Amino acid sequence: MIARLKAPGRDRLKTVETEPYPWEHEGVRIVGERLTVAGRDAEALAREHGTPLYLVDVTSVVDQACALRDALGRAGLRPRVRLALKAQRAPDVLAALRGIAPAGSPEAVGVDVCSPGELLHALDNGFVADEISYTGTNLSERDLDVIVPTGVHVNVDLITQLERYGRRRPGSAVGLRLNPRAGVMRGHDESLYSGRGPTKFGIYEEDLGRAVTVARRHGLVVDTAHVHLANAILDEELPAYDAALARVARMTERLLEAGCPLVEVNVGGGLGTPLLPGERALDLDAWAGILARHFGGFGLDVGVEPGEFLANLSAVLLAEVVTVEERLGATFVGLDVGWNVMNDPFIYKRPVDVVVASRARAPRHRVVTLAGNINEGDDLFGRDLPFADVREGEIVAFASTGGYTAGMWTDHCMRPRARVLYFRERI
Ligand SMILES: Cc1ncc(COP(=O)(O)O)c(C=O)c1O
Q: Mind listing the pLDDT tens digit for each residue in 19-61?
C-alpha cells in the first residue's frame, strides 16, 4: 500500500443523507440512524469498552476473499488468493480465513508475508508452509536464518538478493518479483512500486536475462512470476492496470521462453474499496477478465495477494469528541485518538470518512479541522472536512479502517494503542 489520493475537499459537502455510504455492507451498516458492526450498536460498545476502539466484522474479510477467488474462477482461471498479512494479522481474522477450506485445497486462502516476524506469526496461526508466500525486500542473512528452515516459497526482488538467496538455498524453487515499469494508483497512472523511473522493487525487463543466469548458477528453479504494481484501484484505474499487465505478460513469456518452469503468475495486491461519495466497489468480473486475457493462455495458477481489498471494509475506529472550538474562524474538532493509533492517513495520505455513531446520517453542514491527541502540529486527520454538527462527548467513527491501521500503531507520546473487538458472528 502506498501514498495516494487527493485530500478530501469541500466538494464532499454534497453528502449522502439517505443513500448507503459506499463503505456500508451487511457487517458495517447504519440501522435507522445508528452505526452497527456485526449487528452490534457501535456507540454502546464505545461506552462499554472505552475509546479509541476498533470494531471488526470478521465475516467481511472472508466474504471479500471468497468474492475475489470466485471472480477469478468465473473467468476460467485457477486462483490462489493470499492475504497480505501486513494489512491484517489478528488471530481471529486469520482463523476465519484458515477455516475457508482445508490446507492445500484450491479453495483455501493463504497469506503473503514480508518479514520473518510475519512468517512465524502465520505459521503460529495455522497456515502451513505451502500456503505462505514470502515477498519481502532487502533480506539480510539474519532474515534468511529464519526463512530458509521453514521452507516457504520466496519471491526475490533484486538480482543481488537472488545471489544472496541462491547462496543460502541452492537448488530451490524461487519466484522473481518483476518490475514492468508501469503501474497505477487510485487517481494516478503511476506507481511507487513499479513506476517509470527506478524504484526499490522488482527485476526490470532489461535485467531478466541476467536474473535467469544468476538463478541457473545457483541451481534455482524460477517457478513464479510476481508483480505488485497497483494501489487502491477502482474501475477508473482498470485501463491503466490492463496496460501495465500487458508488460507483465510479455515478461512472463520471456521467462517461459528462457526455460523457466513457471507454475504461477502472481499479480500482487492493489485493489481498492470504495470510501467517498460517488465511489463504487470494484467490478471484480472486469478485473478478473483482464487477468484472464493476459494470463489465461499460459495455463498457470494466478495468484493475488491483496491487503486493502480484503481488510478495509471490515472495521471502524471509534473515538470520543473531546474538543469543539472555534479558532480564528476555523472549527477544530479534537478527538481522543491520534496518529499513533491510526497513522495510515499520514503515511499513505488516505482520506478519512467520519460519521457520528449515534446519528450516522446527520447532514454534514460544518467544515472542520479534525485533530488528534498527539502533541504534534500535524496530527490532523483532515482540514476542511465536511462534518456533522458534533458535540463534545459524542462518539465518532472512522469508516473503513480495517486494513493496515491497527497493525501500524506506534507508542509515540506513550499514548496507548486502541482496543480491538473482533466479531466472528453477525447477530
Ligand atoms: C508485495 C506486496 N503484495 C501485496 C501488497 C498488498 O497491497 P494492497 O494492500 O494495496 O492490496 C503489498 C503492499 O504493499 C505488497 O508490497
A: 899 999 999 999 999 999 999 999 999 999 999 999 999 999 9
Q: Tell me the per-residue pLDDT of 61-83, one tens digit each, with 9 for 90 and over.
A: 999 999 999 999 999 999 999 99
Q: pTM score > 0.70 for this model?
A: yes
**Residue 3 domain flag:** no
Name residues whose C-beta falls within 8 Å of residue 354's C-beta, 6 or more positions apart in sequence.
370, 381, 385, 387, 396, 397, 398, 399
- Confirm if 176 and 225 have CB atoms less than 8 A apart: yes
- Ligand 1 lined by 229 (C-beta under 6 Å): no
- Whether 211 lines ligand 1, by a CB cut-off of 6 Å, is no
235/351 same-domain check: no
- CA–centroid distance, 367 to ligand 1, in Å, is 33
Ligand 1 geometric centre to CA of 83 (Å): 9
Is position 175 within any domain?
A: yes
Question: What gap in Å lies between CA 58 and CA 179, rounded to an integer?
Answer: 34
Grid coordinates representing 192? 511507487
